[in-house]
Amino acid sequence: MQREDIQKLIESGIPESIVEVEGDDGTHFGAIIVSDTFAGKSMVQQHQIVYKALGDKMGTAIHALSIQTLTPEEWEQKKKLRVV
Fold first, then answer.
1. Contacts with 66 (C-beta within 8 Å, 6 or more apart), sequence order
2. Which element (helix H / strand E) includes 59?
3. Distance of CA 57 to the CA centre of its chain
C-alpha cells in the first residue's frame, strides 16, 4: 500500500477533508486528517470514522497507522503555533 492510496481512501470516505499521509516502508504510516466531520466527536469516534473510510485495508495492507484528527479550527491553531 502506498501513501497516495491511503490518502485517496480517506478522502473518498471523508468528503471535503484535508489529508496528509507520511511513511515509506509500505506498512507503517502516519496521517493527519482535517474535517468538519470531527466537530463535537470524541477522539475514539473520530478515529472510528477514519477506520471506516479505510475499510478492510486496516490491519491487512496497512499494518500500522498513527492518526491525528483535527477540525479546521484546530488545524488553523496548530499551523499558527508552528510558525514561530
1. 29, 30, 31
2. none
3. 14
pLDDT digits (tens, 9 = 90+) for 70-82: 999 999 998 888 7
For 5-61, write each residue's pLDDT tens digit.
Answer: 999 999 999 999 999 999 877 778 999 999 999 999 999 999 999 999 999 998 888
Place of cell 497507522: 65
Q: Alpha-carbon distance 71 to 84, whole Å? A: 22
What CA–CA distance (Å, rounded) separates 39 from 25?
32
Q: What global pTM score does this model have?
A: 0.88
Inter-CA distances, 19 with 6, 84, Å: 9, 24
Rounded to 5°, angle at Cα 23 from 45 and 50 = 15
- CATH homologous superfamily of 3-82 equals BolA-like (3.30.300.90)
The domains of the chain are located at 3-82
